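re: ur question from earlier - yeah i can do the single chain one, its not a big deal. heres the input i used so u can compare w yours
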Amino acid sequence: MVRSVLAGVAFEFLAASTPTVAQSLGGAQAPDVSLLRVFFALLFCLAVAVAGAYALRFRMTGRLDLPTLSAAAQRRLVLIERLRLGAQHELCLIAFDGCEYLVSVSATGIARFDGFGEAAATGAA
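and the output i got, formated as tokens:
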């Protein structure tokens, strides 16, 4: 019983506080906002969001990689694959200027496996 009374009072409170009632109580006129102004506000908010995303990317990586369509923007160093072997040890397959290198990374240091690039280039196993 008490819940239904509270729900009814809450509904009446929410229904009475619509903008129309508030405007008539304050003596204000209807808002006169053009559709063009709303569109430009939306564009401004989207531009701020995109700028914030690029600022966050710059903050996290230290460089700003803008999308480009030129072939000159291709990277020379590419991490092809990474395999974790343990908590502090992993193997990385790296391509640099068309050659592939197998590198072992651990807490004690980094080691490159010699002969892997030549074997991959000649097709031998």
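Helices lie at 2-16, 19-26, 35-61, 116-122. not sure if urs matches, ping me
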